[in-house]
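User: We ran a pulldown and think these components assemble together. Before we commit to crystallization trials, I'd like a predicted model of the whole complex to look at. Sequences follow.
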Amino acid sequence: MGKLTKFIAILALPLLVNCKYIGSYKKDSVKYDTCDLSQSLLNEIHSYEETANTIINTIVNGKYKGGTYKELAKFVDKFGARLSGTQNLENSIDYMLELMRANNLDNVHGEEVYIPHWIRNEEHAELLEPRSAKLPVLGLGSSVSTPAEGIEAEAIVVTSFDQLKLENVSQAVKGKIVVYNEEWTGYGGTVQYRSRGASEASKLGAVASLVKSVTPFSMSTLHTGEQDYEDGVVPIPTASITKEDANMLQRMQDRGDTIKLKLVLNYTQYPDSKSRNSVGEIIGSSLPEKVVLVSGHIDSWDVGVGAMDDGGGAFISWYSLAILKALGLRAKRTLRAVLWTAEEPGLVGWAGYNATHFHELDNFTFVMESDEGTFTPLGIEYAAGVKGGCIIKEILKFLAPINASQAQYSTGGVGSDISAWTQSLIPGGSLLNANEKYFWFHHSPADTMDVLDPDDLDKATAVWAVVSYIIADLSEEFPRERDQINIEALNKLQTDPQVKLVHNKQ
Amino acid sequence: MGKLTKFIAILALPLLVNCKYIGSYKKDSVKYDTCDLSQSLLNEIHSYEETANTIINTIVNGKYKGGTYKELAKFVDKFGARLSGTQNLENSIDYMLELMRANNLDNVHGEEVYIPHWIRNEEHAELLEPRSAKLPVLGLGSSVSTPAEGIEAEAIVVTSFDQLKLENVSQAVKGKIVVYNEEWTGYGGTVQYRSRGASEASKLGAVASLVKSVTPFSMSTLHTGEQDYEDGVVPIPTASITKEDANMLQRMQDRGDTIKLKLVLNYTQYPDSKSRNSVGEIIGSSLPEKVVLVSGHIDSWDVGVGAMDDGGGAFISWYSLAILKALGLRAKRTLRAVLWTAEEPGLVGWAGYNATHFHELDNFTFVMESDEGTFTPLGIEYAAGVKGGCIIKEILKFLAPINASQAQYSTGGVGSDISAWTQSLIPGGSLLNANEKYFWFHHSPADTMDVLDPDDLDKATAVWAVVSYIIADLSEEFPRERDQINIEALNKLQTDPQVKLVHNKQ
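Assistant: Here's a predicted model for the assembly, 1012 residues in total across the polymer chains.
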């Protein structure tokens, strides 16, 4: 068998083993409100009350109060941004591995993976007509450069892909710079203009594309993020502009003004470089092969310092294990903290980990990731079946003293790195938190410690520690039965180009 | 008499004439809630109901709906920022004078005044220790430059002037860069660190100073603004940094880290240059010498486009007159729109105007300025006595259909340019509006059209037009009786260095 064939065969194995999990989506959601756990299971969960209180109090009022914030601030102040492929990211990984060793976690190690290495050199843009002005720009990850002397071209503003494809518009695009002035309709919909905008514009002959920063709120704030060139299209330079400038360009076009821009965008795409997912464990006392995984990603974009995205998620994952260890709490199953590398360029660290650990996935009892903010914690968003949801709800009652008892069912998966897992095979949870403003700061210079609050981070660490510890320690295995399974996500485990990429390199 | 003596004599004249206005502050504020206007005055005010409704409807629902926003957008898109001393500001003034002429306003003209001309060339800063990072900076108006090669020095972070003056701190300042990490306690208190920070640091031998941007909220946003060197201190370069970076530097210092910075700040202070306050009128039908003045300032800082500060205020002032004119409404008294130049460097346009028009101030019936935002209008904040307040309240009842009927008494003056007038001699009003977020955007790149809303601007124009027109048209003169008069403000009219400056130059 060739490497890839063998790989797909390995991937298919759990499918056969786990085919029972594939079911149709049951529309009756009422059942999620009524739990019917056995009295023995309830009794067992309730027996953790004292332990849960000890964990919460130690973190929120005791020895570790303020600790997550303090440690994270020290970390981001020391390293700043941690862009995929940079030595600075590797230094920050060394630092975390050192911390985990200092906590006496078990099996502390980095797991190698190749990751993209794209960097921003010089970038600036000017509005030449109808008036002269600087136009702040922020290149999108993996963008190619303009020629050194830049590109001067007319701009054409569109509000949607549909508008771009209108006959009179699409025929006018050739040789121009396409400016996407899309409406914010939520991240999932809007981010398409960032990730696919250059490709769609290139297909029509555009020489570059600019995208309104993907955010619901702006203070003339630039937001970067990954973009992908579709196979076969001519790669064109692409960057974000502010919402304010996109709106201004729209007004100018609506007035009939000719808009002329000059773009000088210079980036370097280096060969993939070696990085590591950082791992530390508390090995299980009686079921060491079974794993409850807590995680966040350590890499960030190159603007801001990645305090929120995803310093907070990485640090509550590391710190909850460090505290459980210090409290002498060893669960039956292994608790594993993974600090993913290179989430930002496309879950690349995860993809490598998934490839290496695919044989082990059947032993993954529950996977957790926090990558949508560590604002005021409300509870857990979970991807699990009815019984699993009921267990989570029961556990979360312990979090009532810090108002974090909400269990919210996700119709999809949860997390970012763990999303394909939790959409298909493996039950999991992410931190439910008051993250209404998450995308205000996301991928922007405003992602700093100021976004975070020490008390909120304490509470988030407490939620993380209590939930992961109890699930890892229950005598009963967390149920894998699911209402639905996302076949596309399952296919992603096999066909993700990043998985192939990493696999081929290793 | 020398010029200055003569000037002060002229200044003193209204003091004698108006000495009845000087009274002690009456603590009983209950009376402000009870009005006792004569029935004839009430009847006269009520007779404006149809006119008020016509004005409001024409602006909010009719022909001029969206007009203020549309015209302001066209203006800021055309000119961008309008910094004191620049040709671009003068071009924008020409544009406004042209607009006023096109509206057939009376007596349209510019009134010359000399204004400061300070510009930003290059500026960048680096954190050298404890780690290497770029530190975004934004120089403060009138700052001197560093040497071309920059300044490298240790930084010392203080949270207040009191802390700066502690013995162990003040003795350590010499040769260092002082970083003000002041708490936001409202603009009036906090802005002291921007305006006086360099002087206070220089007195102790600092080589430069940085100030946390003066704002209650930041998205890593830089805010500039004017600063003043105290007479006799060595002028040192000074700039703002983000709240986030100020907090980071504080944490570094608190950890015991040595902080080393490099600053390259390059600015040019040119000689004062000629500018103009833009004036347009609807000359009064029977009392043309009496003036109701509406105003805002046309200049802005060089970041953002000054849409909010103070494009909105300038445009509701111009547009309300343009609409009254188009509606054929000529009041008994003269309605005068003044678009102040060079407010930002220290009310310089006003100071020149005040010097030229001091002889006329006794004829100023009521003065209005909007310079604290044109967000959702709520009514009028006024500086007037009990009877004046009651008249305003009665007029504002007409604004009930747009929920802008609140009359709020100001214990000080109102407005910025008109503040010394309204603290002392002349009754006046500013736009009361839902401006809780004003200082989020103030003096920053985020001051753009996106801050404003077309409906809000319509309503603001309607409030401005209704209030100014009725006060200008009432048969009874708006009462000048005041509860208090601010002697300091009155002195300012005589002693303001800008007044002297302008006076000496003219």
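Chain B has two domains: 14-116+272-505, 131-258. That may be worth checking against your pulldown data before setting up trials.

User: Thanks, that helps.
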